[in-house]
Design goal:
Elements lengths: L3 E6 L3 H12 L4 E4 L10 H21 L15 H15 L5 H6 L2 E4 L3 E5 L2 E4 L2 E10 L3 E3 L12 E2 L1 H4 L8 E5 L3 H12 L3 E5 L11 H13 L3 E3 L4 E7 L2 E6 L4 E4 L1 E4 L3 E3 L13 E2 L2 E4 L11 E3 L4 E3 L11 H10 L12 E4 L5 E5 L2 H6 L5 E6 L4 H6 L5 E6 L5 E7 L3 H13 L4 H5 L10 H8 L18 H10 L4
Parallel strand pairs: 1-2, 1-6, 2-3, 6-19, 8-15, 9-10, 9-15, 10-11, 18-20
Antiparallel strand pairs: 4-5, 5-6, 7-16, 12-13, 13-14, 17-18, 21-22, 22-25, 23-24, 24-25
Helix pairs in contact: 1-8, 2-3, 2-6
Amino acid sequence: MPDHDLAIIGAGAAGLSVAAQAAALGLKVALFEREASADSSPQGGTVAVAALLAAAHRAADLRNATRFGLSIGPVAVDWAAVQAHLRRAVAEAAPPASAAALQRHGVTLIQASAHFTGPDRLEAAGRVHSFRRAVIAAGTAPVLPDLPGMVGLPWLTEDSLLGLQAPPAHLLVLGGTARGVELAQAFARLGCRVTLVVPSPNLLETEEPELRQPLREALRADGIEILENSPVAALEPAEAGLAAVLEGGARIAGSHLLFALGQAPRLAPLDLAAGGIRATSRGVATGADLRSLTNRRIWAAGDIADPEGLRPGQAAGAHAAVIAHSMLFRLPVRLDGRASPRAIATAPALAQIGLTEAEARAAGHDPRILRQPFAGNDQAIAEGATEGLVRLVVDGRGTLLGAGILGQGAPELAGLLSLMIGRRLPLDALANLSLPAPSRAEAAVHAAQSSAGSIYPATPFGGKLAPPWARTLAGWLRLLP
């Protein structure tokens, strides 16, 4: 008889959720977490970055308060207090993953690294554990390049950067990823000198050009030096701390270097081959139900999963629910990443839901683009933050395929458009949506109303203008008593 009905590797959000649900159903659940404490959850880093960005944006708001008629002196940054704010945020947002809390739910916590020794066996802390089913939720780790000269120099990853006891004098950020851009702006707004070194030709190259270009200019307005198409060939010591040597021979010195080249799945310690589990460079190969394609006892959750037809990490928040249906109740369910949103928490923020214009064309659509700038939005005008726009990607039948938003509040507005795409609601449902006014969400409604297929196109005053046929009909109807 197996030792465990369910073995879960990794105490991330998805792993914890599945563990609690399975234990509540009476299953014998073991959770393997290699960290010294299960409170060290992967989402802690995400919360810490969000808290750092919140502090940075507040600092920028204080500096710009004069536009509202407010007079405030020079903004002083207390780095120790900022670090305390990050720790509080992580502590308050952490899931109840302590051993005692897990045991109350009926979950056995095994604080050890686990690896497969067979299709239904794991080894951890010198003991072999057999299981009926297992979930791999081991998460990802920062991608580190193999550069000459790295040894002994002050290079950082996201985790070590957020633990700095003093702010860097000159932070070099290597990588044009969303997280790299967020951290570059955060440290610049907290008073640090920042240089963003982007190996690829364009910053945020997978995002819509119409959205990423204004964001690039906003970063430069914050004082960030951006060097695109600048691969780093080596690192070397410098008086300030270290220097990045570019492939062209240029040398950029700074006090610290942050690697922000993305994340890679933590596959190596798992010995997946011993478990008969196929993996790709992006993670554990699964179907749309998150079940392994080669070992039907195994599921994968979170960023370590590589579901067929979806980008890694897409719809990761829905993984626990999919696994609960697929594994615990054996119901036919598929992960649907069509409406999965992603966001960059910069100022202005950038959010993308569904297909970009390029992805829509690659999928065989002939998309139309509907735009509504925030410059005409009453709420944005009142807030003094009119940069950006709402950009809708629509097919010939008026179906919303994707949406991009650049501007304040973009992640929150993304939820509305994600619901539209996920539920396959017609564009008229958005065009006829009633909202409190003023509201930034009105920009999305006005973008939908600008469609030639909308029954009531928008007027310059925000209302709806009847098409010619409706005016003719009204003319006849007015003759009725």
